[in-house]
Amino acid sequence: MLLINLIAARRAERRKLEFIRGVLARCMFAVGALTVMGVVFMTFSIQTTRSRIRDVDAQTAMLQTTVAKVEQLQADMAAVQPRVATLLAAQNSTNRWRAVLQEVGASLPAKAWLTSFATQAQPADSFIVTGQTISQKSVGEAMLHLNGKPYVQSVELHYTQASSKDKLVNFEMAGALVPLEGATDGK
């Protein structure tokens, strides 16, 4: 009887060990499966990240060429800027003198004629008008009209001289122009 009881205890202990071994085997299988799934997930994540890095590198390379083009265009614009400024100044000056000529023409009375119109750089953008008219009064009217024009700063009479031969009055007026905005040397 004693042997029978030992056999039962050994069988129970073996079953217990087999149960523990089964649980450990299942745990090891589960740990192995989780490890494999973790490795697969990490590999997939790494591949996805590498793919994103390649995409970003491609976009960066494409943007780098665009940035280089923009920088080149900005450098070209900076190189051309002095020429553009000179051209704009020339256009402003041309338009200004065109307006001055129109104002001088509009300021002359009906029976006044210009014989010459000259410009001078010194004193700062000035002009000299010579002409003929029928009276001293017409010369005064022309000076008053010119003084009221926006481009003309001041008008001075240099001389008037009555001609005994044709009964006309010869005159010479000088005017100074209003300085251009942003002009540094008076032009």
Q: What can you tell me about this protein's structure?
A:
- The chain is an alpha+beta fold and 187 residues long.
- It is built from two helices and four strands.
- The protein has a four-stranded antiparallel β-sheet, covered by helices on one side.
- Helix 1 (2-107) packs antiparallel against helix 2 (136-147).
- The longest helix has 106 residues, at 2-107.
Number of helices: 2
How many strands in all? 4
How helix-rich are the residues, as a percent range?
55-70%
Low-confidence stretches: none
Order of helices and strands: HEEHEE
Evaluate the radius of gyration.
51 Å
Question: Which sheet architecture does the biggest sheet show?
Answer: 4 strands, antiparallel
Q: What's the rounded overall pLDDT mean? A: 86
Structural class of the secondary elements? alpha+beta
Which percent range describes the beta-strand content? Answer: 15-25%
Silhouette:
rod-shaped
Distance between the termini: 133 Å
In the sheet with the most strands, the strands line up as 1-2-4-3
Task: Summarize the model shown.
With 187 residues, the protein is α+β, with helices and mostly antiparallel strands. 63% of the residues lie in helices and 20% in strands.
